[in-house]
Amino acid sequence: MNKISQLPIIYSLRNCPFAMRARIAIYKSQQAVRLRDIVLSNKPADMISVSPKGTVPVLVTPQGQVIEESYELMLWALGQNDPDNLLFSDDESKFTAMLELIYRFDSQFKPCLENYKCAKRYSEDNIEQCRQACEVHIAELEKRLSMHSFFIADRESLADIAILPFIRQFARVERQWYLTAPYPKLRQWLDRYLQSKMFSKVMAKHPLWIDSGEEVLLGGQQ
Predict the structure, then answer these.
(1) Closest C-alpha among 55, 189, 162, 147 to residue 107
(2) So what's the pLDDT on residue 222?
(3) Closest by alpha carbon to 22, among 66, 60, 71, 65?
(4) What is d(CA 94, CA 219) in angstroms, rounded to the nearest whole number?
(5) For residues 162 and 105, what is the distance between their CA atoms, to the nearest angstrom?
(6) DSSP-based helix, strand, coil % in the chain, nearest 5
(7) Averaged pLDDT, 151-162
(8) Which ranges in 106-213 belong to alpha helices (H)?
(9) Whole-angstrom Cα distance, residue 36 to residue 213?
C-alpha cells in the first residue's frame, strides 16, 4: 500500500462555500489529503456509499471515520495540526467568541445571503431589503475590523476562514454597490484573501475525479 492511498479523502465541489472553507482549513493544517472534485449532478458511488445524503464536503479518514459537516471538518483538520493556532488554544475566551461568531453567521447571515442572491437572480423588487438584512451582519464585521486586523484579534482565526466564502459571495451579488459601500476594511480583508497564494491553491480547478480517477493532493507542507 503506497503512502497516498493511506491519506484521508475529501469529496469537494469547487465553488461550494462549505467545501471551500473545509479545503482552506485543510490547507492551513498543512496535512495532505486526497481531493476528489465532483459535480452534484453526477455523484460518485464511492461518496454516496459513505455519505448517502450526497452533499459536500465529505471527508473519509483511513480509519473509516466519515465527517459530513464543514464546521466539524474544519475543527478536525486543525485538531490534527494547527501551526498558526487558528483555534486560539491558548485563549479560551477568544476560542468561545470565535465559535459564537461562526455559529451566528452560519445560522443567521447565511439565510439572509441566500435571500439576497435570489432577489438579484430573479430581479425581485425586495433586493434592497434583502441586502439590508445582510448588512446587519456585515456592519458587525466592519466594526470588528476597525478594532483589529481580523475578526477576533490581530491575527487570523478559524472565524476568518469559516466566514470568508460567504463574504466572497456577498461581494459578488451587487458588485458595483459593494465596491462603494461603507465597508472599506471588509473589502481590504477580503481582497487580501482573494489575492493570496492560499486562495489560489484551494480554488485550483482539477479534472472531475469520477472522470479521471486522478489522485490530486491538497495540503501538506506549503
Answers:
(1) 162
(2) 58
(3) 71
(4) 26
(5) 9
(6) 55, 10, 35
(7) 98
(8) 110-121, 127-147, 158-173, 175-180, 184-194, 197-202, 209-212
(9) 9
Sign of CA dihedral 221, 2, 213, 16: negative
Angle at 147 between CA 144 and CA 150, to 5 degrees: 60
Q: Identify the residue whose cell numbers are 475525479.
A: 209
Q: What is the three-class DSSP state of 42?
A: strand
Q: Are strands 66-67 and 58-60 parallel, antiparallel or unpaired?
A: antiparallel
| 35/204 Cα distance (integer angstroms) | 11
Q: In the CATH scheme, what is the code of domain 92-196?
A: 1.20.1050.10
The CATH number given to 4-85+199-218 is: 3.40.30.10
Whose grid coordinates read 487558528?
Answer: 86
Tally Cβ neighbours within 10 Å of residue 73: 23
User: What are 101-138's pLDDT values in tens digits?
Assistant: 999 999 999 999 999 999 999 999 999 999 999 999 99
Burial 11-38 (b: 16+ CB within 10 A, else e): bbbbebbbbbbbbbbbbbbbbbbbbbbb
- pLDDT attached to residue 215: 82
The domains of the chain are located at 4-85+199-218, 92-196
Question: Which of helix, strand or coil describes residue 103?
Answer: helix
Q: Structure pTM?
A: 0.96
State how far the alpha carbon of 207 is from the alpha carbons of 28, 95, 189, 210, 214, in Å. Answer: 23, 37, 31, 9, 8
